[in-house]
Design a protein that fits this description.
This protein is of the alpha+beta class and 222 residues long. It is 22% helix and 30% strand. Strand 7 and strand 8 form a beta hairpin. The structure holds N-oxalylglycine (OGA) and manganese (II) ion (MN). Manganese (II) ion (MN) binds next to loops.
Length: 222
């Protein structure tokens, strides 16, 4: 039968799923090269580059609510939250929705929501070692990072270093931000950092969230 719908390759490779789940359970982090569809990465990269050129990104800060502050000595990226405005964004978010279901089925994590932002690191930018959430207030449960940069050179810098949850000075992975690479890790226990980049660097950072109640207060979304 003929159809006018374009058939896309899966945005996130289905063969990555069992490896991703095993790695999260065994070591708390996962990195897979070539997990994201190359065509989708190219579209998202073009979208982010155009946003950076028309100044549609906001300087990223640290801390939430009233503690939110710009700290260029801690992080130098510029961001924009995904809002489903393009087909490429919808495909990426759809794939993360499927990943959320798979994680909930396999690990009973009770993840109910996903939020993600584009991140553009201009040359020289970095993000110092940090955790993505704090235990006890942890409504960000699993962090994800999708990389969008085709042909990233060996001397391009901008690697994400991942450290052991139980030994925060021990590097366990150094991830080149090459298009197609997908990483995820436990948000409240896996320290990580972005080394200074030599070239403009594009990624999508996202978080699966649980609804954490704090003495009756629900932690605000951003
Ligand atoms: C973050 C982060 C890593 C990356 O945004 O919290 O750690 O490689 N990003 O973009
Ligand atoms: Mn982080």
């Amino acid at each position: 039968m003929e159809t006018t719908t374009l058939n896309h390759a899966p945005a996130l490779s289905p063969v990555a799923l069992p490896r991703l789940i095993d790695a999260l359970v065994e070591q708390g982090w996962y990195v897979g090269e070539g997990d994201l569809d190359a065509h989708l990465c190219a579209e998202l990269h073009a979208e982010l580059t155009a946003m950076a050129e028309r100044d549609a990104l906001a300087a990223a800060g640290i801390g939430r609510g009233s503690e939110h502050a710009l700290r260029r000595d801690i992080r130098g990226d510029a961001i924009r939250w995904l809002d489903r405005e393009s087909q490429a964004q919808r495909r990426y978010l759809e794939a993360m929705g499927e990943l959320q279901q798979a994680l909930n089925q396999a690990l009973f994590l009770g993840l109910f929501e996903y939020e993600a932002h584009f991140a553009h690191y201009p040359p020289g930018a970095f993000y110092r070692k940090h955790l993505d959430s704090f235990r006890g207030r942890a409504n960000r449960v699993i962090s994800t990072v999708g990389y969008l940069n085709p042909g990233w050179p060996a001397d391009g810098g901008g690697e994400m270093r991942i450290f052991a949850a139980d030994a925060p000075d021990r590097e366990v992975a150094k991830v080149r931000p090459e298009a197609g690479t997908f990483a995820c890790f436990l948000a409240d226990s896996v320290p990580h950092e972005v080394l200074p980049t030599r070239l403009p660097r594009a990624s999508i950072a996202g978080w699966f969230r649980r609804n954490a109640s704090l003495g009756g207060l629900v932690d605000p979304a951003h």
